[in-house]
TrEMBL record:
Residues 96-106 have a biased composition (Polar residues). It comes from Laspinema palackyanum D2a. InterPro entries: KGK (IPR014971). Pfam families: KGK (PF08872). This is KGK family protein. Residues 92-121 are annotated as: Disordered. The lineage of its organism: Bacteria, Bacillati, Cyanobacteriota, Cyanophyceae, Oscillatoriophycideae.
Length: 121
């Protein structure tokens, strides 16, 4: 499997093995359900977070929080925002299907004389 992860949209559906489910009570869920469960967990984590900081912590799931990231190929730390995102990397790349009619329209003629024959026909 490659590292071509892409963020999932909030309405996309995820299915995991029943033994691997977290925060959501069922193994098949929309991405936003996991995000909402995580936000609820953060809101209810008074023991972990100071009560006056919960609103700031909630930005992890939305607009992002201020951070610095050290990335491969970059010259030092880069300032910006980070947020929690559910991502997916397919085992096999999706093959795009094209119709044979489309291919015929975009391909070069088989013979240079084909164009002349069409004009005379």
């Amino acid at each position: 499997m490659s590292n071509n992860f892409e963020p999932l949209r909030s309405d996309e559906v995820v299915s995991v093995d029943n033994s691997l489910k977290i925060l959501v009570n069922h193994p098949t869920f929309k991405t936003h359900e996991l995000t909402e469960a995580l936000i609820t967990l953060i809101k209810n984590a008074d023991r972990i977070f100071q009560a006056d900081k919960v609103d700031e912590k909630m930005k992890w799931g939305g607009e992002g929080i201020t951070a610095q990231v050290l990335r491969y190929g970059a010259n030092g730390w880069q300032k910006g925002k980070v947020r929690i995102s559910l991502e997916f990397c397919p085992d096999e790349p999706e093959v795009q299907k094209t119709s044979t009619q489309n291919q015929a329209e975009t391909n070069e003629p088989e013979s240079p004389l084909d164009d002349i024959r069409r004009m005379q026909g």
